[in-house]
Amino acid sequence: MQAPFSVPALYSKKKGTISVSSGRNVVEWSPSVAPLDAIDANGGDPLNGTVVVRLDDIAGLQASPATHAKARLRITTTSHTQFTFELPTRANLEALKAVLAAANAVSSSSSAAQSPSALGTPVPATPGAASRSGPTRKLAIPSKGLSDANLLADKTLQQSLMKSNGDLQQQFLDAVVQQSLPSDQFWRPRIPLLRMHSLVLAQRRGPYNVLATVKPVSTMQSEATGGAAGAAQVKVSLSPDKVRDIFAQYPVVRRAYDENVPPLVETTFWSRFFLSKLCRKLRGEKIGLNDAPDNIMDKYLDLDEYGTTAEQRELENENAKIMRFVDVEANEMDDSQRAGNRPDITMRQTTHKDTLSMIRTMNKLSQKIVESVEGEAQQPVEEQEQLKQRELALQDLEPARAVSHIGLHLHRSTDSLYSSTAGKAADALATQGNGLGASKALESMIDGLPGSTGSMPELLNSAVPSSSTISHAQSQVFDLIHARRRTEGNLRDGDDSVTPAGDAVTLRDLKLSHTTAIEFLHHFWAALLSGEPSRAVSALPLLVGSVEKSKVRLDAIVDQHVNQNAAQGPTKLVQEKKRVQGYVQITLDALQSATKTYYDLVKEQQAALTASTGQSENSTDTGTPH
Amino acid sequence: MNAVDGSSHVPQDGFASELEEELPSLLVLVLDTSPLGWGGAQSAGISLREAVASLLIFINSHLALNHSNEVAVIASHPTCVKYLYPVPGEDYSMVGRKSTVATGAESSEETNGHQSNGDQNEIPSDASMYRQFRVVNESVMKQLELLLLATSPSDIEHNGRMTDTTLMSGALSVSLAYINRLIGGVNDDGPKVRARIMVVSVCSDLSSQYVPIMNCIFAAQKMKVPIDICKIGNSTGFLEQAADTTGGVYMHLEHPRGMIQYLLTAFLPDRVLRKHLVLPTQSSIDFRAACFCHNKIVDIGYVCNICLSIYCEPPADGSCAICDTIFDPKNLAELLKKPVVVTTATQKFKAKKKKKKEFESIPGLTPGPS
Asked: Which domain of life is it from (chain A) (predicted)?
């Protein structure tokens, strides 16, 4: 904590003082003379005109250059409001700058230190961290921040994303490297991808039961877990992180370590530990009689995992013993109908002590791990207390409160949209009317029905038409089936029995050029339809050029394919060209329409411009349209 | 498994198929009876009489495939939606017997009281026809005739010209409700029948019914009920979408006179068989939608990002008519900007000169996550 720093300053022509609080997180300006009725539009206190800015909210600081007559400081907050202060002397400005810079440096280093903090160990907070955390959640936010600007600037993130996604890398190489699309523009529509990738990279493994993962690997082909004495060589790999986690989760091991290691070498300690009964007990395995006795480790067998003996536990719990009559939890569980009269497995005298200790160990460990997971669903202690109080309070004698229902208001204005009568007038009014009046049409329909004439078999016979009609109908159905089979066959099986094998290379090239063309079309339409003159001048001519180049590329690939098969006659060549062009016809059409729209617009707006100004100021014209 | 989104948990391939082979099949036939439509169909080659005859043969074949197959026929008229079979209130176990039973006082009391109102118009019954077929055929013909007789010319006229509407959305809703009732509870042994809908349509697109038809389509998709479309006349985009979304067959008849052939080859296989067949359905689908404000058909338009309702132009009052979200006026203004391709150079320079250099940023002093 430093001394509060204050300096006189002018704000909107009013005299006052800028002070930085001692906790270095608030910058405040208060006027020397309280104005009578100041309403500050920029968010200051309307009553006495103070302006308070939190250090966290400051997004930018600007100062007037040293050569300027007046010393001004402008603070921009994250909500885009700006406060301008005028300081009497330049020295004041420099001092204030220094203080703010120092405060900023401290806060940014502390925020960087907090994000990669240790996994779930209840080790006390790392030194040097500013005490800004408290019960706040610490999510796995990458240290570099997730704003758009940061993501765009982060080259390593982009590269790692491209490495993980081969298609993206192809597109990048084609568009940016070969076709010179600015890389900024390439990434701008892909910011959600970048954001997700940076979140994936920032994920950390949560706390877990370390002892279960430490698996001794035996170099001989006999048993895997340590237990056989003598010749079997057993390897265990331990890293300092794991050691720290073991100490955190099993304090009894720590106690053993502290008491024994100065005489013992550390490696000996660990090797004896993993071979001992203590380790098996902590893992939850039963201690058989064949395990080697270990005079050091066995001392700790009787203690529970915290390192306290049974007697110590008794002493601790004595004060906490609740009379059975009022013990709510015990009485809830003591329901003889739930599982018969026999006590629960944890309450029996015949359960093996090891089973009980294993159950208790696992439960306590899981609870500890869950509690140590940062943030998430932790309720602060006060909330838990309040919850308990609320549950205990008797509510039966309270006066009955009227239930207040939430009223739902039906919005009837959409009825007019959905009703079918609304659009009746708009629906197709007999435009291709066959001239029949309504009554006549009805009559003709009714005449057809056999109520008055003919019987059922006659009626049914009339359904069968001439055989030529039947064959026409049948051929239509079969044509559809054939067409469908051709397209669906490819989708379902994945093996292209229909595509000729020679097309494979061409198809690959076409696909690549198609993707790039679509990319450029995206950017072209975005720039064109945004209506901003700046973009029109800077980006649009380049994009139009790229669009045209894409078309040329596609045509070139088609021609190349045709020339490869140049052995066949000219008519066949034309057919072949049409066939291959059919693959990308849609893309070519899209490119064509884009260029056409552009040049039409240019012509139109140029004409309007010359008409309005009477001079030709077309210095930004991109050349003659063709 | 490190992915942040949940896409790895969603099964990529299809769900396991149920044992459908043993369940009977329910066919709901929706017949469009708009007079103008059938007038147009008449000029295309098929009259209502022939079409109904083909449909009856089709229904009979459907019933013949499996003893427990069921059918329902619904007429979609410009003014109403009507069940042609089964007619509510009629007892089909008694139909046909009254002509042979003497009308003694006792026997008429034994029979169920809802007997016929149409005794006079009794179609001469053919005793040698299979009873189930006969019942359906007679009911359909009788009810259709009653329906048409009950329509007065003023019902279908608007401003002196005939309207080309039909209550397709109502008919689809009614058929879906009927199917839902017949399928039975979902929580006991499972559905009792497998249902599908078949629509015979002669009208052109009904843009005013876009929203109800889309709702019916999604409901059918949820219930796994395919909707088949047999189209005579102009093509309709909405019904194409219906067939495509629900996995049905859309067939536009080029030779309407041969309707019976189309029906019996393309539309007869039921849901179970279709998995093993290549369906003769049209592949190119008109996915255009109708806008919610004017019911015009649009292919490029504006969409509200909260309720996904479609507009042909940005709403004038700046808020969505369906969900009442107020749009940001800045964004709306941006959408309305015209594309600009040509500017004059002088504007650019003037703007730069006006900007006086009052402040310059202090490097390194800007706080924020570093």
From this structure: Eukaryota
Name the residue facing B56 among A61, A434, A460 (closest C-beta).
Answer: A460
Q: How far apart are CA A536 and CA B337, in angstroms?
A: 13
A598 contacts in chain B (CB < 8 Å): 341
DSSP label of A545: H
Residue type, A61: L
From the centroid of its chain, how far is CA A72?
41
Count CB atoms within 10 A of the CB of residue B31: 25
ipTM of this complex prediction, to 2 decimal places: 0.74
CA distance B365 to chain A (A): 6
Q: Which residues of B touch A59 (CB under 8 A)?
A: 366-368
* CB proximity under 8 Å: A 475-514 to B: 476-478, 480-481, 483-485, 487-488
pLDDT tens digit sequence for A297-353: 777 777 765 666 767 777 777 767 778 888 888 888 777 777 777 777 888 888 888
CA-based radius of gyration for chain B: 29
Please tell me the distance from the alpha carbon of residue B344 to that of residue A617, in angstroms, as a whole number: 6
Whether pLDDT at B89 is above 60: yes
A403-411 long-range contacts, CB within 8 A, separation 24+:
A411/B324
For residue B40, list chain A residues with Cβ-Cβ distance below 8 A: 432, 434
In this complex, which of B157, B209, B280 lies closest to A480 when CB atoms are compared?
Answer: B280
- Inter-residue contact A20 to A6 (CB < 8 Å): yes
Which residues of chain A does B129 touch, with a Cβ-Cβ cutoff of 8 Å? 456
> How many CA atoms lie within 13 Å of A134's alpha carbon, on the beta-carbon side?
4
CA A192 to chain centre: 8
Which positions ≥6 away from A287 have C-beta within 8 Å?
A277, A280, A281, A301, A354
Contact at 8 Å (CB) between B202 and B42?
Answer: no
* Exposure of A245 in the CB half-sphere (CA atoms within 13 A): 21
